[in-house]
Write a structure and sequence with these properties.
By secondary structure, the protein is mostly helical. The protein has 18 helices and 4 strands. Helix 8 packs antiparallel against helix 9 and helix 10 runs antiparallel to helix 11. This is TIR domain-containing protein.
Length: 344
């Protein structure tokens, strides 16, 4: 954080206040500021939990983000009377103007790159909290759960980016003893631009469960079908919308999911929600059975009708099956039509 603060300090006006410094930092380094906000919120939640459970007070720095910023030694120095006097004495308006323009240009490019990275990382995530996620989080803590079962649960949870899920992954990053799972939690938080601190490995002799590894690479549609028929937690999912579409229309489907998420609706799309099982090289009868189950779990179907989807046998199969379920079917041909049909 030292370098960003120093960069802001170098382009401050002749006379500045603590709030000018803060606002310039927030403007030029929005993502770094967001990390500070999340950091302080995290420590506040930890402090509240410790007090509630063990009546322990003041373990963590629970200042607001602004208070924390002003408590940073470097910031204190920049706001000191001596530093402000020196800045005013050496102030060169034309030089500062050039420096500020260069910094603004640099930050615009760098902030866009950060934004681009986050958009790419979150491309297939949904910003809703369906009720079934609570079932998954509760199942994670059941007795004798295997590392593979934990991985399956986290693979589902990381398809969502909400405060509830972020909080859950933070707890895993703090306390999960299996190294692979803990690193997965860390990577989720890091990739999605959230505050996270990598924990040290637990000391002492390693237990088997701490070093166990698992993978979903060999999973097939048949495995998911078996989970669904055996009343695994997969069978407890509920979706608001089943999106019937052609994979050639991916971009529009992503936009449709975003629109429904803004209305707090959870969407089922096979290549985002079941991609670890419904691999193209294993397409077959079990794929159909899984899609049937997912349609049964969905409240309505939205068909994105395009030149691509009208030629798809899979879309025809989905429409026919959903009609037999006697559930609502809506047909849209564009994002604009969807917005008009489902506007609040």
């Amino acid at each position: 954080m030292k370098y960003p603060i120093r960069q802001v300090a170098e382009v401050l006006p002749e006379k500045y206040t603590r709030y000018i410094l803060l606002k310039e930092f927030q403007r030029l380094f929005p993502y770094q500021w967001n990390i500070i906000v999340e950091r302080q919120q995290t420590y506040k939640e930890k402090a509240q939990h410790l007090y509630k459970v063990k009546k322990i007070k003041n373990r963590y720095n629970t200042k607001s983000a602004e208070e924390y910023f002003f408590s940073i030694p470097q910031v204190k120095y920049i706001l000191s009377a001596g530093r402000m006097k020196k800045h005013k004495e050496n102030y060169n308006a034309s030089e500062i103007k050039i420096k500020k323009a260069a910094l603004e240009k640099s930050r615009k490019n760098k902030n866009w790159k950060i934004e681009e990275r986050l958009i790419k990382a979150k491309r297939y995530t949904q910003k809703v909290d369906p009720e079934y996620l609570n079932i998954y989080m509760k199942a994670y803590h059941k007795k004798d759960i295997t590392t593979e079962e934990k991985l399956e649960i986290l693979t589902e949870l990381k398809k969502f980016d909400t405060e509830n899920i972020v909080r859950f992954f933070r707890k895993l990053n703090d306390a999960e003893q299996n190294k692979m799972i803990r690193n997965l939690a860390f990577k989720y938080l890091q990739d999605y631009g959230h505050y996270v601190k990598l924990r040290k490995n637990f000391k002492g002799k390693k237990k088997v469960y701490q070093t166990e590894r698992a993978s979903l690479d060999t999973k097939k549609p048949e495995d998911l079908y078996n989970d669904l028929t055996n009343k695994n937690i997969q069978s407890q999912k509920v979706y608001d919308i089943f999106i019937s579409h052609s994979t050639k229309d991916k971009k529009t489907v992503e936009d449709i999911i975003r629109v429904f998420n803004e209305q707090n609706k959870t969407c089922y799309c096979d290549w985002t929600m079941d991609q670890d099982y419904l691999k193209r090289k294993y397409v077959g009868e079990y794929t159909k059975q899984v899609l049937k189950a997912r349609m049964e779990q969905s409240k309505m179907l939205v068909l994105l009708r395009t030149e691509n989807s009208v030629q798809s046998d899979w879309v025809s199969f989905e429409i026919e099956y959903f009609e037999n379920l006697k559930k609502p079917i809506y047909i849209v041909e564009s994002l604009e039509e969807l917005l008009e049909a489902f506007s609040d």
